[in-house]
Amino acid sequence: MTSAGPATLDALTAAVSDWSTDAADVAGAAGDRSGLLPDGAPRIVVRARSVAEVQATVRFAAEHGIPIVTRGAGSGLAGGAVAAEGQIVLDLSQLDRIVEVRVVDQVAVVEPGVVTADLEAAARQHGLFYAPDPGSVGISTIGGNIATNAGGLRGAKYGVTRDAVLALDVVLADGDLIRVGSETTKGVTGYDLAGLFVGSEGTLGIVVGATVRLLPVQAETASLAGWFPELTDAARAVEAIGRTGVRPTVLEIVDAATLAAIDAGFGTAFRERGGAFLLAQTDGSGAAIDIGRIADAARPYATAVEVAEDELLAADLLAARRLALPAIERLGRVLIEDIAVPRSRLAETIHAVQAIGERHDVRIFVFAHAGDGNVHPIILVPDSPEDGPIPAAAAAAADDIFALALAVGGTVTGEHGVGALKRAWAAREVGPRAARIADGIKALLDPHGILNPGKAI
Ligand SMILES: Cc1cc2nc3c(=O)[nH]c(=O)nc-3n(C[C@H](O)[C@H](O)[C@H](O)COP(=O)(O)OP(=O)(O)OC[C@H]3O[C@@H](n4cnc5c(N)ncnc54)[C@H](O)[C@@H]3O)c2cc1C
Questions:
Q1: Is residue 89 within 8 Å of residue 78, measured between CB atoms?
Q2: In the prediction, which pLDDT does 308 show?
Q3: What is the pTM of this model?
């Protein structure tokens, strides 16, 4: 605790052990990594130490009609954890116990504040792994991953967070605690309420516990680095890889501008190798054969294809790919887009994104979880102060990118979520009827609108 709260917060501060109303503390917990600035100062940050403290916070908020913004690590890229004037920030990062890893059942039971990489490390000790591995794996929390339905580099084969979630403990908007889903691999009793809470961005309930699926570590893996004249060539290679029937674990592509940014930021020398980079990994007993088939499919489009014999080299390539976003962020303020398109439309989408950049005269860096068709066009916002308005050209380019995603049968957000930033485009994507259904679900679960209002829907 750092300072006494106003009188009306007394009932809350008496019920929780770790809270602060200190301006710097609260400001530090009010944002995420999207670049969206908080609209005023939240009133208090509560760092919950138990489920009972989460419940007490929600009951206080419900009684007084104060909105709650739940946060994990604040690594989100859609403004989902950005809090506004007078709100309560509920930080769950202290609820970080891995309760158990059940080897026979191949599940882990975790608290929401567990850092994703820590779960992965714990599972590995038992010969298992946790598949969803966002680029932010070293900082993001499982609760945040569940709330955003995070994807990751292994999504091409193993899917997204929703595929890993079996059961959830959720604190509802009135403070009650419920369990949804089933700890068993199979389970179809009733509606899929666990699936409903996954990706709901803190707007329907607060995830305070999760049972997640683990998978056995594959004995064999193989990796390949491909170099191409242009990103569209790499995208065409991805389409050709799709025709082989091989399902790679990882299939990532990175454009020339991003390679140059990684080199400038981290002292690597990727850009001189080519105008685009493709990283593929396979696993399982046929890993070496599969990587050979991927190499054959990619070769006609590539200037070089190298199967990485060395596991350490493969790990380095993966680490370099994870540096893409931080490297671009070093160059200035960015708009981080996150469209997903059918894989068969990847090359044309990337070509169109490049044309959008030229048309609006803005720099757009592009890298993609190509196996998922999930493209990240990152718009560098020229000469714009952190808190200044987005220049019209950058905003127009973002608009055109969203329109493009929908035009090719894709979605405006593949993994980062709608948050506060993409609501208008999300509404356009889902249409009025589905939007009304979503509003009805929200009204049922959060009738007074205290859970992360103004986000997701
Ligand atoms: C360098 C970098 C790389 C990234 N790479 C990827 C990537 O590959 N794939 C990807 O999907 N994302 C990626 N992200 C985005 C981000 O890491 C993910 O969205 C992540 O899931 C957010 O987790 P968090 O714990 O930081 O959540 P936060 O940012 O704290 O919160 C995100 C949202 O979840 C809600 N929330 C958080 N915890 C809970 C809870 N327990 N119950 C209910 N609601 C909750 C918040 O209210 C908010 O709406 C990346 C981010 C960075 C900075």
A1: no
A2: 86
A3: 0.96
